[in-house]
Amino acid sequence: MEAIGTVVSKVAVMLLLIIVGYIITKTGMLTEKGAAEITSLLIKIVTPCLIINSLISAGKNLELGSLLLAAVVSTLSMVIGVLVSLVFFKKEPPERKKVLRFSVIFSNAGFMGLPLIQGIVGDTGVVYGSFFVVVFNLICWTYGYAMMSGGRLNLKTALLNPGIIGLAVGLPVYFLGLDLPAVIREPIGFLSGLNTPLAMLVIGSFVARVDLKSFLTDWNVYKTAFLRLILCPALYLVLLLLIRPEPEIFVSTVIQASAPVAANTVLFAVEYHQDSQLASKTVAATTVLSILTIPVFTVLAQLACGF
Fold first, then answer.
1. Which residues does 152 contact at the CB level (< 8 Å), separation at least 6?
2. How many whole angstroms separate alpha carbon 233 and alpha carbon 99?
3. What domains are defined for the chain?
4. How many CB atoms lie within 10 A of CB 167?
């Protein structure tokens, strides 16, 4: 029951923010240009601050072997998404295929995943969950970037994109145990705090521009929801049964692997001129449906590892 209550609470927060974005778009307060500018702000400024802040807030260092294992299994969860998306979206038009594949590969591991882990696993789980977010950003800003932008990933892009810059700053701070002064730490925290509300407003803005009939009749939205919320986490759960990591890693990463489509899907679609309406539909639909699926996988993970 605790898992269900936590999931419903987090989803309700996200949906209310999406509704606000929908309303301010319909009333003309937020224009398409404004939503695009917010998207650029989120990607270029807020994203690196979010990564740095998650590592600053991750808590005490755990054993390096456990952290590496958490990173390895987190990578495997996204590899599963890559393989599944390649199998199920072969015949889609390129602009839709990119969005659908991105939606299946990347989950909302940060905003939804970490609070759920905090409530169910505790502080140790949050540290492991932070490394899932680190892996998420590393793969998102390399493989995901190359896929959505349509360009080759050169060395300059790989090293200077916002996600990698955030990791380059945050990882040394974490591993060296640096205590940043408040004058630096607090602005980073404030900027990272903008991620969820601004991202949800943007999603609501693009949902407002989607024809309701196309939302309900787009078969690929439901197909994506099945793959992201059921098939991928189920395959990942089976894989963890073979690897048998410690219970905190097991439960924490299953929660993140079963989260709905990442808000980054909309942000990348807007920034790189892909199908932003389709991206908005996959985020909104999977967020609602995750109320039913995340508690199931959380309980299954707890039973599987005896947590």
1. 146
2. 19
3. 2-305 (1.20.1530.20)
4. 20
How many angstroms separate the Cα of 244 from the Cα of each of 241, 253, 296? 5, 12, 20
CA geometry: angle 90, 264, 160, nearest 5 deg: 100
3-state secondary structure of 261: strand
Q: How is residue 274 written in tokens? A: 């892909």
The vertex-67 CA angle with 61 and 72, nearest 5°, equals 165
Contact (Cβ atoms closer than 8 angstroms) between residue 34 and residue 182: no
Residue 222: Cβ-neighbour burial (10 angstroms; 0-12, 13-18, 19+): middle
Give the pair of three-digit tokens for residue 203. 């999603």
Give the integer Cα–Cα distance in Å for 272 and 149. 5
As a whole number of Å, the CA-based R_g of the chain is 18
pTM: 0.81
CB 285 within 8 A of CB 221: yes
Q: What is the pLDDT along the chain (307 residues), one digit of tens a residue?
A: 566 676 677 778 878 888 999 999 999 999 988 988 888 888 788 878 887 887 787 666 667 788 889 999 999 999 999 999 999 998 888 889 999 999 999 998 877 787 788 778 876 787 788 888 888 988 988 899 889 887 666 666 666 777 778 878 888 888 888 888 999 999 999 998 888 888 888 878 877 877 767 767 888 999 999 999 999 999 999 999 999 999 999 999 999 999 999 988 988 898 888 988 899 889 888 888 888 898 889 989 988 988 7
Please tell me whether residue 107 adopts helix, strand or coil conformation. Answer: strand
Of the candidates 207, 200, 196, 198, the one whose C-alpha atom is nearest the C-alpha of residue 25 is 207
d(Cα 90, Cα 187) in Å, to the nearest integer?
44
Amino acid at 197: P
162 vs 191: CA distance, rounded Å? 14
| DSSP 8-state class, residue 62 | -
Q: How many residues does the chain have?
A: 307
